[in-house]
Write a structure and sequence with these properties.
The protein is an all-alpha fold. It has a single domain (32-131), classed as Cytochrome c-like domain (Cytochrome Bc1 Complex, Chain D, domain 2), CATH 1.10.760.10. It is built from eight helices and no strands. α4 crosses α8.
Length: 134
Amino acid sequence: MKTSVNLVVIVAFTSLLFFSFRGLDQDDKWKAPAAEAKKVNPVKYDSEAQSIGKSLYAKHCKSCHGKEGLGDGTKAAELDTYPGDFTTDEVHGQTDGSLFYKISVGKDEMPGFDKKIPSEEDRWILVHYMRTLK
């Protein structure tokens, strides 16, 4: 009888842990603050901006996010977290303001690029460039 009570307690505790942590990945999405998400990209995307964006991406993003934005860069395997796939509908469904915010402030292993790329215009250009990765 004592063994079955212990088994019930163990199963109940395990279930509680499972259901408590199960939704963390879904609820822990990286979201930009609403005011930041509403910002509109002020930079016109033309051939010059595309060239700048490609260069900035190669210098600052490619090593983790990969040549085509798939999250398979040369440093990706060294990271504790998956760098993300820029070709997904989830990424392309985000506003320019959200992407600009994430590039600027960073999170966890993703550095904020407001210091490494001090030009806001260049960071907005990176947002445009990210949109080409499909």
